[in-house]
């Protein structure tokens, strides 16, 4: 949309926030602790009974906004005690401005139209549906077909990537309610059957949070999305060769986001402030990725490569999956661990599906898809195999002879694993890796997919503090 002048731009901005449930005033004069300020748009609203204040600066410029304007807004909101500052600029922002906003309560918006279509400042909460396992443990399910398949914990809420819903949900684990749902991008296709025009949505893939933004691998698209978690607006679409089908990880300081592509044989380092992208090829012959992990303190990146590995210097027919370890400071691969098993002269078709770091025992747990090895336990620095945690398939696993441990999580005393084909959550002793408990999670066509620890439970209470997300084709 084009705007006739800066006043029209201010009014359009204020109207966007009014539609979002805010009281938005234009050219508002407000007194802070040290001075009186004239604010382009001053927006207030109630959230959970608390008055929240946002200060919005509107820059209808022909040039990108510099760093100084971000610093000036930061000083202004500090003086006012405002909750958030927002700068809206159709021309964009200089790299210095993007870097200055990193780690602050300032949101940079490069399109008012896109912000208006994706932001969500107020919505009603939707309760999860209470069910129970055969063991009597409470299990909460989505009330409509969503098929959550990935999840993460952020600021005491749980963020889920919903495959069927083509959306992101934000869940309050205390009230067991969905407090926000963010719809992802849509696209147009022509039906091959009748030539009719169809509108479809891109499903979400992997998720990470960096610097107050949710990065989402948008599957079947050409981009990774950056969503501002304060406003729930899509603030950036990062073009990536091969698109958003792959895995994300984030550095401990949240300055870098990593994306390992499942379609192009390389991974990418993304600056979380400027969105600059650097490509790094996989090891020679490596193809595809379903898992990625950034070491929390060392500059090591662990890449679960699906195909192209060597076992004792020899390549076998089929997948030859392996774990590649890349040193980000040296910009070189420093080790790899072969994960495929060889039988009758051929490697299996296994894939490393998930990676979990154990800082107490210096291990990496590799949950294997289509593998009898179950969970491979590796040394964190060398990738040397320590042991395998093999699981016996139960009656639900038929016709497969493996259990597919697709997700792991740690508590202070336990290692948790969701074994999809067995429809179970298993609890293992974190030190000995002996089995402590197995809980049946109920039947579903696609089985359980992910687990995280919301808060660390007492030793005698394995499940009351875990949230299990079950990917059910029928909408559970």
TrEMBL record:
The family database entries (Gene3D superfamilies) matched by this protein are listed as: 3.40.1350.10, YVTN repeat-like/Quinoprotein amine dehydrogenase
Where is the Restriction endonuclease type IV Mrr domain positioned along the sequence? 5-111
Pfam families according to UniProt: Mrr_cat
Q: Which domain of life is it from?
A: Bacteria
The protein's matches in InterPro entries, at most eight in alphabetical order, are given as: Haem_d1_sf, Host-pathogen_enzymatic-act, Restrct_endonuc-II-like, Restrct_endonuc_IV_Mrr, tRNA_endonuc-like_dom_sf, WD40/YVTN_repeat-like_dom_sf
**Designated name of the protein:** Restriction endonuclease type IV Mrr domain-containing protein
- Source organism: Paraburkholderia gardini
Phylogenetic classification of the source organism? Bacteria, Pseudomonadati, Pseudomonadota, Betaproteobacteria, Burkholderiales
């Amino acid at each position: 949309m084009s705007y006739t002048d800066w006043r029209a731009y201010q009014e359009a901005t204020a109207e966007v926030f009014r539609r979002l449930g805010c009281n938005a005033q234009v050219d508002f004069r407000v007194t802070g602790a040290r001075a009186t300020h004239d604010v382009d748009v001053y927006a207030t609203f109630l959230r959970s009974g608390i008055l929240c204040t946002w200060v919005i600066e509107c820059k209808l410029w022909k040039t990108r906004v510099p760093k100084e304007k971000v610093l000036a807004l930061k000083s202004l909101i500090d003086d006012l005690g405002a909750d958030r500052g927002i700068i809206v600029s159709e021309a964009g922002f200089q790299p210095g401005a993007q870097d200055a906003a990193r780690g602050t309560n300032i949101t940079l918006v490069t399109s008012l139209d896109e912000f208006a279509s994706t932001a969500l400042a107020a919505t009603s909460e939707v309760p999860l549906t209470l069910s129970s396992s055969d063991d009597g443990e409470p299990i909460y399910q989505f009330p409509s077909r969503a098929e959550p398949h990935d999840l993460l914990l952020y600021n005491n809420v749980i963020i889920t990537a919903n495959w069927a819903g083509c959306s992101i949900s934000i869940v309050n684990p205390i009230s067991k309610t969905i407090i926000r749902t963010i719809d992802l991008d849509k696209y147009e296709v022509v039906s091959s059957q009748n030539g009719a025009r169809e509108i479809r949505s891109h499903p979400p893939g992997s998720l990470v949070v960096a610097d107050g933004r949710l990065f989402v691998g948008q599957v079947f698209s050409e981009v990774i999305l950056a969503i501002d978690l304060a406003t729930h607006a899509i603030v950036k679409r990062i073009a990536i060769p091969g698109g958003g089908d792959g895995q994300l990880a984030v550095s401990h300081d949240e300055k870098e986001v990593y994306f390992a592509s499942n379609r192009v044989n390389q991974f990418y380092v993304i600056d979380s402030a400027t969105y600059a992208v650097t490509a790094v090829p996989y090891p020679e012959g490596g193809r595809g990725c379903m898992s990625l992990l950034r070491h929390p303190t060392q500059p090591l990146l662990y890449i679960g490569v699906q195909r192209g590995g060597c076992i004792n210097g020899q390549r076998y027919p089929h997948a030859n999956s392996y774990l590649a370890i890349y040193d980000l400071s040296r910009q070189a691969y420093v080790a790899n661990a072969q994960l495929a098993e060889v039988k009758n002269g051929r490697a299996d078709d296994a894939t490393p599906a998930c990676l979990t770091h154990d800082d107490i025992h210096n291990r990496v747990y590799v949950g294997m898809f289509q593998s009898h090895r179950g969970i491979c336990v590796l040394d964190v620095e060398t990738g040397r195999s320590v042991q395998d945690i093999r699981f016996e398939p139960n009656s639900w696993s038929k016709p497969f002879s493996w259990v597919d441990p697709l997700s792991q999580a740690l508590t202070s005393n336990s290692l948790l694993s969701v074994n999809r084909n067995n429809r179970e959550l298993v609890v293992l002793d974190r030190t000995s890796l002996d089995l402590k408990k197995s809980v049946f999670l109920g039947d579903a066509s696609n089985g359980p997919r992910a687990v995280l620890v919301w808060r660390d439970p007492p030793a005698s209470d394995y499940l009351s503090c875990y949230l299990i997300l079950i990917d059910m084709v029928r909408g559970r």
